[in-house]
Design goal:
The complex is a heterotrimer of chains A (375), B (357) and C (90). Chain B is an alpha+beta fold and 357 residues long. Chain B is built from nine helices and 15 strands. Chain C has one helix and five strands, in the order E-E-E-E-E-H. Chain C has a five-stranded antiparallel beta sheet with strand order 3-2-1-4-5, with no helix packed on it. Classes of the chains: A alpha/beta (375), B alpha+beta (357), C alpha+beta (90). Strand 9 of chain B pairs antiparallel with strand 3 of chain C, so a sheet runs across the interface.
Chain lengths: 375, 357, 90
């Protein structure tokens, strides 16, 4: 595949790995956070840590939109889905996310009509084809996904489709990064910045990180060479005493982002005063809701929603994992009470959740795996 | 302070604990072939039926009947849509049953067919399905010798379901087994993976995706017979990779044989369109279903020969060595990625779901 | 956080729906191009696809620049390793 295969080249990876190792100052340790769950997935899927020297640790950040959904929101969505005339739609990612009582898969087994879609436009199509049912789209995702939801709502308005609504759970990346930066118990040396969210918001919104926190921030692509390259650039900045926003992913991310996408978000949605993040608690101005003008498409206004609030389970340390304070295996319930089959925390649900990724792909020590896979 | 190693050891202990079904109701994950299915089988079926013939959980049971040995298997088919590029529920049912017998080392002979039909189902469609069953049976050299028909009320089934049973005779002293893989063996797959699953996902039309992918449904008994004729003692394990894909089969082999399996990502054959679909939907082709792909574990010294034999056969033209069997860590499947890294290839909990993140 | 895949535009953008056919390794789907109206897309252009929408137009020159750098690095490294092997006379 073009723009994919060439960024998976093992020869270039070995060369980059050598350069990364050479750039590390003896005795110094480096902790970089990849903000985005997509990067976490790439890191484990391709085994990127095999190329990194001991001195470099990657910390998995909060950028998995499924992992940050609080249990109460899932329960609210299940409540909507159980209305007899409702068809609930969402991405496959949502199906196994635990609420306080049930997952979407459980609710479906108990009779709720819940359908997986590839695109919000597919949810609208279901609404068009089922005029006697109310079709709700459980919208999740960062600014990457919000424009697609917004365009779909605009289309519904244009076509006069009145049985379609959005249960909006879109979240914003900058407040999350800021929460991490302000977290007192965390020491990072730099960030691997989220690539796809930046196609929408551009690179400017990160400039405060360099300015106020003096941290290097490299927006990176999702192929394995992109990630190694980003680590190399981060080490380069540190070696030269710089802390800047750099765009490793310029083939896809324009510095200024996508103007049209930002406009449609602004038209259809507005920033919530505050929103609860799983593990991180309430963060102000950190999520989107439907704008007044589009109230007719707002599931939160249409349905009587219980507004369930469920405290994160005591045993679960998702918050510390999301902030990168704990490695997944350091959580008290990791791998024993909390597994991909019986997830307690959301980090164990999504395949890009830090815990699930570590459990599925990285569970054995690197040395043992390396020894075992030697030809 | 607890170390990473202590935590990981504890996890392995937990993983060996007896399976418990926690859900109060069956979910779709229980039918995926992954961990949820395995738990259901262990905790509900095996628990109730436990006997030495069932316990190994091979694709069929090997029975001693009056001095002769026979393999007995059963299967159920609920594919939707009923007709898809490359086949339909009819030839799928015949090939699936034939393959279960073949990979147990038996020569498939007789099949049964049970039909559960929904009120209102077009007779024309039924004729089409039955005709393709007849053709598939002839191609595989088996006869459908008994059957049953039930009709349920409209809405109680999805058009047509088929259940089968199959009997085959074992004519060799040594038969392949899921628990016979040994360190040093090679792992071979008979062709590109994931084509059936991809074809079905596309044929459902829900994803709005178009591609020229056709199901790989095919009988494997001819291929298996040639392989066992040539390498009667060197073939350790045979499985057909169905739901859950090649990754699931290899996990079963690793667990049953107490070995590790190491796959080499670069050598796993995958058609570009299957790759494209998997990239688009964020799923891993290693877990996508096949219906005519043999996974063979063969003595490492005879692996090239086994591949040559497979390639000489129409359904094995794309055969390739995709990995090898090791000692440590037992029960685990590892992957050397094309990028040069390594990772674990675990059983999935449920079906591979399309993801956006 | 967001799965995005490069695809090639293989048809024209329909005026009313903003949809256009995109090819990902032989797999085709109609994708909404509305967010890239500023880019004046034409068949043969590559875009990043996410949940049925094209989010950005892929720059071939930017891709090439990074690739040339990385592969140059890879080549230099391989040459060095080869040289090392040749110089090993033990």
């Amino acid at each position: 595949m073009r723009f994919v295969d060439e960024f998976r080249d093992a020869d270039a990876a070995r060369a980059l790995a050598a350069r990364i190792a050479a750039r590390c100052e003896p005795g110094r340790r480096y902790k970089f956070m990849e903000v985005c769950g997509g990067h976490t997935h790439t890191i484990y899927k391709h085994g990127i840590e095999d190329y990194l020297p001991e001195a470099v640790t990657l910390v998995h950040g909060p950028g998995c939109p499924v992992c940050v959904i609080p249990m109460g929101r899932v329960d609210d969505a299940v409540h909507i889905a159980r209305q007899p005339d409702v068809i609930m739609t969402s991405f496959g990612d949502m199906m196994r996310v635990p609420g306080g009582a049930a997952t979407f898969l459980d609710a479906k087994a108990q009779g709720a009509d819940i359908r997986m879609v590839y695109s919000p436009l597919d949810a609208l199509k279901i609404a068009r084809e089922n005029p006697d049912r109310r079709v709700v789209f459980m919208a999740i995702g960062f600014e990457t996904t919000a424009p697609s939801t917004a365009v779909t709502v605009l289309r519904a308005a244009e076509e006069g489709i009145d049985n379609f609504s959005v249960f909006c759970n879109h979240v914003l990346i900058i407040p999350a990064v800021k929460a991490i930066l302000d977290s007192p118990d965390l020491r990072l040396d730099g960030f691997i910045g989220p690539g796809h969210v930046s196609t929408i918001i551009g690179c400017r919104p990160y400039e405060f990180i360099a300015r106020d926190y003096r941290q290097p921030f490299v927006v990176a692509g999702f192929e394995p060479l992109d990630i190694l390259h980003a680590v190399d650039l981060l080490l380069g900045q540190l070696a030269e005493g710089r802390g800047e926003v750099e765009n490793q992913y310029a083939r896809v991310v324009p510095w200024e982002g996508n103007r049209i996408a930002m406009e449609v978000i602004g038209t259809v949605m507005r920033v919530r005063p505050h929103f609860e993040w799983r593990g991180l608690g309430f963060i102000s101005h950190s999520a989107l809701e439907m704008a007044e003008e589009y109230a007719a498409f707002d599931a939160e206004r249409i349905f009587d929603i219980p507004g369930t609030r469920i405290a994160d389970p005591m045993a679960c340390q998702c918050g510390e994992v999301l902030k990168g304070v704990l490695k997944p295996w350091e959580c008290k319930v990791f791998g024993t009470a909390c597994t991909p089959e019986t997830p307690i925390g959301t980090c164990m649900v999504s395949s890009e959740g830090a815990c699930a990724a570590y459990y599925n792909f990285g569970r054995f020590s690197r040395e043992r795996v390396r020894e075992a896979t030697r030809a | 302070m607890t170390t990473e190693k202590q935590v990981l050891d504890r996890i392995e202990r937990v993983r060996r604990r007896r399976a418990v079904v926690r859900e109060e109701r069956i979910t779709l994950a229980h039918g995926s072939g992954g961990k949820a299915t395995r738990t259901l089988i262990d905790a509900v079926f095996l628990e109730a039926f436990r006997n030495p013939l069932l316990a190994p959980l091979e694709d069929g049971a090997t029975l001693a009947l009056d001095g002769a040995r026979a393999v007995f298997t059963t299967d159920a088919f609920v594919v939707s849509p009923l007709f898809f590029p490359g086949g339909d529920i009819g030839d799928l049912a015949v090939n699936g049953t034939v393959n279960d017998l073949a990979v147990c080392g038996a020569r498939p002979l007789y099949l049964s067919a049970g039909f559960i039909l929904e009120e209102g189902f077009p007779v024309g469609d039924l004729r089409r399905i039955v005709a393709s069953m007849a053709a598939a049976a002839e191609a595989a050299g088996v006869s459908i010798v008994t059957g049953d028909t039930k009709v349920v009320q409209r809405g109680k089934a999805d058009g047509c379901y088929i259940t089968t049973a199959g009997v085959g005779v074992v004519e060799r002293p040594i038969t392949p087994s899921i628990s016979a893989a040994r360190p040093g063996d090679a792992v071979i797959v008979s062709g590109p993976i994931g084509e059936h699953g991809a074809a079905i996902m596309l044929a459902r039309g829900e994803l709005g995706i178009e591609a020229d992918t056709v199901s790989d449904t095919a009988p494997l008994n001819g291929l298996v017979a040639e392989l066992l004729d040539a390498l009667p003692t060197q073939v350790r394990t045979l499985r057909d990779a169905t739901r859950g894909g090649v990754a699931t089969v290899l996990n079963e082999v690793a667990a049953a044989s107490g070995v590790s399996v190491v796959m080499d990502e670069e050598s796993v054959p995958v058609q570009p369109a299957v790759t494209g679909m998997c990239e688009l939907l964020g799923i891993d082709p290693l877990y996508v279903a096949c219906e005519g792909r043999l996974v063979a574990v063969v003595d490492g010294d005879h692996a090239e020969r086994a591949v040559d034999i497979m390639r000489g056969h129409p359904v094995g033209a794309g055969a390739a060595i995709i990995g090898w069997v090791g000692e440590d860590p037992p029960g685990l499947v590892l992957l050397r990625t094309a990028f040069g890294g390594t990772r674990i290839v675990d059983l999935l909990v449920g079906d591979p779901l399309p993801r956006i993140c | 956080m967001c799965l995005g895949i490069p695809g090639e535009l293989v048809g024209d953008v329909e005026e009313h729906t903003d949809l256009a056919m995109v090819d990902v390794s032989g797999v085709r789907r109609r994708i909404n191009m509305g967010l890239l109206a500023d880019d004046h897309l034409k068949p043969g252009d590559w875009v990043l696809v996410h949940v049925g929408f094209a989010l950005s137009k892929i720059s071939e020159s930017e891709a090439k620049a990074v690739m040339d750098m990385l592969h140059g690095l890879g080549q230099a490294y391989t040459d060095e390793i080869d040289a090392l092997k040749e110089s090993d006379i033990s």
